[in-house]
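[job 0412] stage=fold_complex status=start
inputs:
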Amino acid sequence: MEKKFLQTPSQTVGPYFAYGLTPEQYGYDFKSLVANELISPLHPEAIIVKGRVLDGNGEVIPDAMVELWHKDNEQEGFGRFGTGTLPGNEYLFYALKPQSVDCNAPYFSLIVFMRGQLIHSYTRIYFADEESLNEKDSVLNQIPEDRRNTLIASKTGNVYQFDVHMQGDNETVFFEV
Amino acid sequence: MSTILFSMDESVHPPKLYPDYKSTVLRAPSRPMIVLPQGLSEMSGPVFGDYQLGEFDHDLTKNSIVNGNPLGERIVVHGKVLNELGQPIPNTLVEIWQANAAGRYVHKVDKHEAPLDPNFLGTGRTRTDKDGYYCFYTIKPGAYPWGNHFNAWRPNHIHFSLFGPNITTRLVTQMYFPGDPLLQYDPIFQGVPEKGRPLVIASFDLDRTEPDFALAYRFDIILRGDKTTPFEKL
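[job 0412] stage=fold_complex status=done
writing structure:
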């Protein structure tokens, strides 16, 4: 196999994505292809995954877009949400909690897009209540111990909180996929 | 082997931190990326449920008409979505958004004092066909000022969002127009290494123009990798 073409370079999503990529969330008159309900909020096992995206000054970013991707052996899901509409500029998804695959810790994939990023950032959301699987997980163990907790969402009831820190002492671990 | 051959090509993509584009300074991750073995989730495609695209989703000159046709220069923007081997990526979603002919976005945050067009929303989407081909009708977007530095203007551009087979092929980019004198001053475009810059500039396509109707621009998009299987469920 031989490469024939160069990859088209990435460019920033910019500040004005909302009426194209998340139109209904922001009140634009255009049908959204996808929103933040990977599962109905009324589903008895639905969890909420939410959080803020913060810049290098610790300021909450009000114009990011995040995509939640998920696949395990039983279900897959995809959601999209901008940080410009909820109080506190949080993102929020309703989903079913992912299951463990091949004895690895379960996780969501999260892609972060925003003005000020020429190329998107990719991270993972692991779960605080999966302690034993997290401890054995090969990906988590590859990460220096003092940064591992940046990938673990805290749990309160059925709500998982996962803030994304672009920089700073708590900078979230981002991955090259 | 294939993970090396088809990794992110840093010789064409912009760096995360590019201080000339000022908002990267506080928003670009500062620590090295952790290289990830690809798990099941990275191999998953986006799932859009069973939503069908609307009849005029690909035609921005028609998809938000209120009381007439949108103002500006009507254009065809078309091309193929391919992988690095040159194989077409069929049935993949292509989403676009842009300013109107006056350089104004519909987005509520855009405060540029140029007129909105009541008949132009400036967003559309389509799916590639079995040969990886897509085609939009739209209005040529105008340039607009922004606050990055004194007298900063964005060149005419159309934003593109693409998926391809899985997370590793996800791409958000911008299409520029050939010969635009603003390109040399634009830190977002200049953030792309020189080798990659021609790849985000469309070519004028006389063959695809529609006489008495619209000029045409060709913009082929190369997604990372060698995967062509259409996992997307639309």
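[job 0412] summary: Chain A has a mean pLDDT of 96.
[job 0412] exit 0
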